[in-house]
Amino acid sequence: MITHPAAAAPAKTVEAARRVTTYEMLGETAFPTSSIFAGTTLSGLPGITYDSRSRSCHAISDDRSQLNPARFYTMGIDIADGDLLPG
């Protein structure tokens, strides 16, 4: 029997999906206008996600390729002491 791919059973995930139900604001950091990092002009970073496997964060730039090509940044954010401090 040939089965259409759309009719196939969904793949099982290794890890069950997690749902965020609460969060705590630890702080915020602002960069001066026109700051340069790795040869690119920093703009807003509206989307940040944490990768538990690499223990790093990924942030997407909101620059629509007006200043530099579309990009994202990989970074570490140290909140070991429960605070987000500049630097």
- Compute the number of helices: 0
Taking the sheet with the most strands, its summary is:
3 strands, antiparallel
What's the β-strand tally?
5
Structural class by SSE content: mainly beta
Low-pLDDT parts are 1-8
Which H/E pattern describes the elements? EEEEE
Q: What is the quaternary state of this protein? A: single chain
Summarize the structure.
The chain is 0% helix and 21% strand. It has no helices and 5 strands.
Word description of this protein:
The protein has no helices and 5 strands. By secondary structure, the protein is mostly beta strands. Strands 3-4-5 form a 3-stranded antiparallel β-sheet, with no helix packed on it. Strand 3 and strand 4 form a beta hairpin. It starts with 35 loop residues before the first strand and ends in a 12-residue tail after the last strand.
Secondary structure layout plus pairing:
Layout: E1 36-37, E2 40-41, E3 47-51, E4 56-60, E5 72-75
Antiparallel strand pairs: 1-2, 3-4, 4-5
Features:
mainly beta; globular; 87 residues
